[in-house]
Amino acid sequence: MESRATSKQRRLWDRTAPDYDRGIAWFERNLLRDGREWLGARTRGSVLMVAVGTGRDLPFLHDDVTAVAGIDLSPPMLDQARARATELARSADLREGDAEHLSFADASFDTVTCVLSLCTIPRPEAALAEARRVLRPGGRLLLLDHIGSTWPPVRLGQWLVEAITVPSAGEHFTRRQLGRVRGLGFEIVESDRYGLGMIERVHAVKPA
């Protein structure tokens, strides 16, 4: 049964879907910058895109990707992702789903990605554990998200904003997943921060 927090997120993303691409444009241009390209360049084999949203990562998948699946809570977001996949002539199995309870068998994918979503997923530790479960040994986990800034004034601002966004929308600005990834036994291949220390990208591997 879906949790109340997850149901709240679904309603939020359903409302956000029509304006999502326009609303995120400034953030993408000024802070995220080449993050999606960085992540896409590291995708290989069969890929699961967790919280695929409107499919903004689809254009950047590596040529070595052989199959694409994606899940998202929001049907309106998925409609846009499917339209984007069609425009790109990219075959993709895009379906409604919950990151905390993936409907895929163990060891199904070579790569799992999650972009700008662990900040709002109610239980990120559960989502990461599920990503690990569906990855094959040696498979890649690729994360891109905003986190607490390394600049104290910016981080203070994030804390203040969270006082509003966490209760109203489940949006966390200071969450960081690197420790959770390590705690699940992943080997960290690459990780770095940029954009005022607010953006972190992680490339980790499930041990063989």
Automatic annotation (TrEMBL):
Protein name per its UniProtKB record: Class I SAM-dependent methyltransferase
Question: Which CDD domains does the record match to this protein?
Answer: AdoMet_MTases
Q: Which GO terms describe its biological process?
A: methylation
Per UniProt, which keywords does this protein have? Methyltransferase, Transferase
Organism in which the protein naturally occurs: Myceligenerans pegani
Q: Which InterPro entries would you find in this protein's record?
A: Methyltransf_11, Methyltransf_Superfamily, SAM-dependent_MTases_sf
Instruction: Check the record and name the Pfam families matching this protein.
Output: Methyltransf_11
List residues of the Methyltransferase type domain: 48-142
